[in-house]
Amino acid sequence: MAEFLSAAWLTRLDELAQASAALTGAAEQPVVIEQEVLRDDGDTVVYHLVLGPGPARVHPGPAEHADLSLVATEDAARRMHAGATNAQSCLADGTLRLRGNPDVLARHAEVLERVGDVFADARR
After folding, report:
1. Which CATH number characterizes residue 91's domain?
2. Contact, 55 vs 83, CB < 8 A?
3. How far apart, in whole angstroms, are the C-alpha atoms of residue 120 and residue 57?
4. Which of 6, 36, 79, 114 is least surrounded by Cβ atoms within 10 Å, i.e. has the fewest?
5. CB 58 within 8 A of CB 14
6. Which is nearest to 23 in space by CA: 121, 105, 118, 109?
7. In this structure, what is the dihedral angle of CA atoms 85, 26, 23, 36, given to the nearest 10 degrees?
8. Does residue 124 carry a pLDDT above 70?
9. Is residue 1's pLDDT more than 80?
10. pTM above the 0.85 mark?
11. What is the DSSP letter of 3?
């Protein structure tokens, strides 16, 4: 299993996203959700998920234009990844912040719920 937040882990997320029938064609126009993880060592890991008319993709690095950015502490990101907490709890305790248009979450709630299922293999 690839180490959480490593380049190999991001590659695995991209493979899972591309292979997912549940995420293919998820949006008529591309929707880009960026994730920034503020690591305990001071580094930041940035990657982004692109949902659109074709296969979903996960790309390392910042997006040229993100509809929504999630900024999380490493602890919060690890807990969400493991399923030990959810984004709502992390927003409430301040370990997760949103930048951009939060309406993206409401407009695409159905497909975003499927994202966790698609990436479950990366948690193993």
Report:
1. 3.30.1050.10
2. no
3. 16
4. 6
5. yes
6. 118
7. -40
8. no
9. no
10. yes
11. P
**How do beta strands 31-38 and 68-73 pair?**
parallel
Establish if 40 belongs to a structural domain.
yes
**Domain count along the chain:** 1
CA 11 to chain centre: 13
Q: What type of residue is 62?
A: P
Q: Note down the domain range covering 90.
A: 7-123
Tokens read off for 107: 């407009």
- Express each pLDDT in 36-88 by its tens digit: 999 999 999 999 999 999 999 999 999 999 999 999 999 999 999 888 998 89
Cβ within 8 Å of residue 116, ≥6 positions away: none
What HEC string does 27-72 produce? Answer: CCCCEEEEEEEECCCCCEEEEEEEECCCCCEEEECCCCCCCEEEEE
Q: Output the six-digit token pair for 47.
A: 């990657």
Position 121 pLDDT exceeds 80:
no
- What's the Cα-to-Cα distance from 106 to each of 112, 113, 123, rounded to whole Å? 9, 11, 25
